[in-house]
Design goal:
Helix content: 25-40%
Mean pLDDT: 97
Structural class: alpha/beta
Distance between the termini: 34 Å
Radius of gyration: 17 Å
Oligomer: single chain
Number of strands: 12
CATH topology: Protocatechuate 4,5-dioxygenase, Chain B
Strand content: 15-25%
Number of domains: 1
Shape: globular
Length: 268
Amino acid sequence: MIRQPIVAGRFYPGSRSQLSGMVDDLLLSAPDREKYTAIAAVSPHAGYIYSGSVAAETLKAIEIPKTVIILGLNHHGTGDRAALSRSVWDMPMGRVPVDDQLADLLVGPGSPITNDEAAHGPEHSVEVQIPFLQALQPNLKIVPIVLSYFSYELCTRVAETLVEAIQAVDKKVLIVASSDMSHYESRQQASAKDKLALQQIEDLNPLGLYNTVHSNNITMCGIIPVTVALIASKKLGATGAKVLRYTDSGAVSGDTESVVGYAGIVIS
């Protein structure tokens, strides 16, 4: 099966040359850092005009391996709770295959992760990560998974499934959790709430993150992908997390009364 892009021409340019040029410009503008050998990252998924600089700065700071698990969220409620796509992703900058070896290990008997294309059909949260990863890793293979909202216990089961599969393939695998932060609050409110969530991530406290977001009504859309990534990272030996950049949509739009927050985080 072939998965066609659904937000090309809206969230990012639809032509190969324009998209490649925009991604290259964003990466070139991002600070040069010593590369992290990361276990996971958190990267935003809005239109590139708003969050592309954060995604570029975050992913540029990482040695991107040939295989990347991308954990998106299910904005639309279509399909299974933890849905893996086996399609080839036909992106403007070129087709990206799924790592079938890793995907096969993730959907075995009793796994909470299922093969389900329906959940990916209308969903942009995985798609917008791919052009940056393509630019940074020409031999990219992905394992695209979208997650609905569910319990912390199920987050743990999904994370454990990821860890077992990653350990079984015996090769470097990066997890990218796709998430924006607070939505449609003033800059003052959004930054205060997001600071609470980001502190839990930097403390490597997935349960604290899950509970903090819930108890403070933080509209961090990718709480489940980030929680899963954080649990898995700890089980894979992570010892630290660092917020590389935090900003909001008001930095571009000028509207600071109703913003969406964006954070780029490396877990290593």
